[in-house]
Amino acid sequence: MFILVLNQTNIIPDGGNNKLRYKFPNSVHLTNKYIAVSSISMFYSWFNITSGYGNNRFTYTWTAGAVTTTYNIIIPDGLYNIPDLNNYCQFIMIQNNTYWITGTGQFVYPFELLLNISRYAVQINTFLVPTALPLGSTVPTGFPGWPTVTQNPVISIPANFNIIVGYSAGFTSNSNLNNAYVPPLANKTNNFVSKNSIGTLSYLSDLAPEVQPNNNVLLAISNINNPYSQPSSIIYSLNPNVNIGEQIFAQPPNFMWNKLIDGVYNEILLSILGTDLNPLIINDPNMTILLVIRDKDEVLSASK
Fold first, then answer.
1. d(Cα 140, Cα 255) in Å, to the nearest integer?
2. Long-range CB pairs of 251-256, under 8 A, 24+ apart, other chains included
3. Using the 8-state DSSP alphabet, how is residue 94 labeled?
4. pTM here?
5. What does the alpha-carbon distance between residue 114 and residue 125 come to, in Å, rounded to a whole number?
6. DSSP character for 110?
7. I want to staple 110 with a disulfide (CB 3.0 to 4.6 A). Which of 57, 96, 153, 225 is the partner?
8. Please, what are the domains in the chain?
């Protein structure tokens, strides 16, 4: 049995930290050889929302007088959970001055994102914006003004971001003009929506939210002979069962042997892929991956 050690010195410097090349000291003949992952040590450092994924934006509206302005919320690349997203939305609403402050100092925002654990859903609440400043409240400098008719902001969820929050692409909330909107009866094909006595509209995602689309990392290696897999190069799946920034250590209890295509080798290329089989952008290159190579006879004897 032979052990191959791959670490950050083997990373191909293309900016993604997702391809590692192991060069043999000399050309080697690999006939009836099998390869498997022995252990993986790396840091959880890949994002769930990036401009590259195209899942980093959605919009909300604010009406001042009779003029409705649509504001873009563009989320910086990062790893976010739903409370993080809600905090960032509040930050943007402060930047846009689309909020007011109660007499007790509480900031009132026109909408919020919540995690509804019991319904396995992301909940969007939109709030009825009045036509005048509520008693005892204040507004920030640069406040755009009040609408002429009470209404809720309109939240629009485009493709790609919709996967994160579990809403169908193109979802748009209701403006509830003059607090006259009547929610439809809930059914399995629409987002559940309810309305309370003060005009708050609450929506639930109609799809399972995929807050981290790449919740599993796939390792692929060149020159694998696996006719039953598509793609045939996948040899291992890694689950990041730690918090962001923490070290992942995985050691399979049993080797999962994959046959190498017979031939002469100068190198072996290992790729780290997301669940969509595209190269995964790894931010921290600090990693060590051990591979083992065995003869066919050793694999057969080990399985007895």
1. 62
2. 251/38, 251/39, 251/40, 252/36, 252/37, 252/38, 255/36, 255/37, 255/38, 255/292, 255/302, 256/36, 256/37
3. H
4. 0.87
5. 8
6. S
7. 153
8. 2-46+214-303 (2.60.120.1100), 57-204 (no CATH)
